[in-house]
Specification:
This protein has 8 helices and 21 strands. The protein has 359 residues and is an alpha+beta fold.
């Protein structure tokens, strides 16, 4: 059982956008003022899209373009939870869940009783926020809500142009694979759900990392390979169709990747976090840290499995296109194999590679 993770790095390029707002702008002189989400580092301002918002865009793309049926949400007071049924609902599998509930269990004497169960699943898909790669100074745009025969209502909103970076990791071993031993964070399934999977084409395998009190491997339940490959590939293919963001009526922005790196690694550590730099001619400029990328490819060479795929959209970073193409010629024992393609072709090629990497 391979312990592989997909490590992904993306860049977005947006102009006059307001992708994720933060409510009332308390620093504005206007009463109706909306602020965009931002953080500060080393005295500079960086706009960002929350990790939760990115996951919402991801789910929407999976529903609209891949026919995923999302797990129904149940609300009880201030608590909300999904069905916690990863066999039937792929988003429960990929995005994780936590649910406290009661289940009827039949004892050996034939009697049934309700027992309290809590099932949790750590999401195989982990992602960062999407944050501007360089400092950004949002502009406050004065706007007005007006109609022909009514008093206008003025308001302001913050807008910005930015190259934004995001990282994600998809645990390929975890996709479609579930534990149900009694340990916090590892009880993914109730006993009934476990039996349903085994009765519907699932198999039981040994956990390579966890043992019971007798020193024997714990047991995992796994969906068919075709299902696991499809769910992983759908998740990555959905990046082609990302859409979303606040104020799309007047500030529509394309949030599909303009640059992407996809690699399979044996480590959960993300290697590509510092391959872009804001140390250019201006504090707010974004540049490719090519030497940093070479360093990562060399230092993590033993952890890369298969080809590392780099995707670049024509019209974005054209000044770096020729340099990136040289990655294909590294071809030594010190570096992994690298393929440089247009963005969508890079995603397609990586997903094809996954078919042989998911066992």
């Amino acid at each position: 059982m391979s312990n592989l993770k997909t490590q992904g790095f993306i860049l977005l390029d947006v102009d006059v956008a307001a992708l994720n707002n933060a409510g009332k702008n308390t620093s504005s002189n206007y009463e109706n003022a909306v602020a965009t989400k931002k953080v500060f580092k080393n005295g500079n301002s960086y706009v960002y899209v929350s990790g939760q918002a990115w996951r919402f865009w991801w789910r929407e793309a999976l529903v609209r373009h891949f026919g995923w049926v999302m797990s129904p949400i149940t609300r009880e007071g201030k608590i909300a939870f999904t069905e916690a049924n990863p066999r039937e609902f792929p988003d429960d599998d990929i995005f994780g869940y936590m649910r406290a509930a009661k289940e009827e269990v039949k004892s050996e004497d034939g009697k049934t009783k309700k027992v309290d169960i809590t099932v949790t699943r750590i999401s195989p898909l982990k992602n960062s926020a999407i944050v501007s790669a360089a400092a950004v100074r949002p502009a406050e745009n004065w706007s007005v809500m007006a109609r022909q025969d009514a008093d206008p209502v003025p308001y302001t909103k913050e807008e910005y142009s930015a190259i934004m970076k995001g990282m994600f990791s998809l645990d390929l071993m975890q996709v479609g694979t579930f534990s149900n031993y009694n340990r916090t964070g590892f009880k993914n399934l109730s006993e009934n759900r476990r039996k349903e999977i085994l009765e519907n084409g699932g198999i039981e395998i040994a956990d390579p990392f966890a043992k019971d009190g007798k020193g024997e491997p714990q047991k995992l339940v796994q969906l068919a390979k075709a299902t696991r490959v499809k769910r992983a590939a759908d998740t990555l293919q959905a990046l082609k169709f990302l859409s979303g963001g606040a104020m799309q009526t007047n500030n529509m922005a394309d949030v599909t990747p303009k640059f992407i790196i996809l690699a399979s690694t044996t480590s959960g550590n993300h290697p590509f976090s510092h391959i872009v730099s804001s140390q250019g001619k201006r504090d707010d400029s974004v540049d490719l840290n090519f030497e940093g990328l070479l360093e990562v490819l060399k230092e993590f060479k033993e952890q890369f499995i298969g080809t590392v795929f780099v995707g670049l959209r024509t019209g974005f970073w054209d000044e770096h296109a020729a340099k990136l193409q040289t990655l294909k010629d590294l071809g030594s024992e010190d570096y992994p194999t690298v393929s440089v393609l247009p963005v969508n072709e890079a995603i397609d090629a990586y997903c094809k590679q996954l078919e042989n990497q998911i066992l």
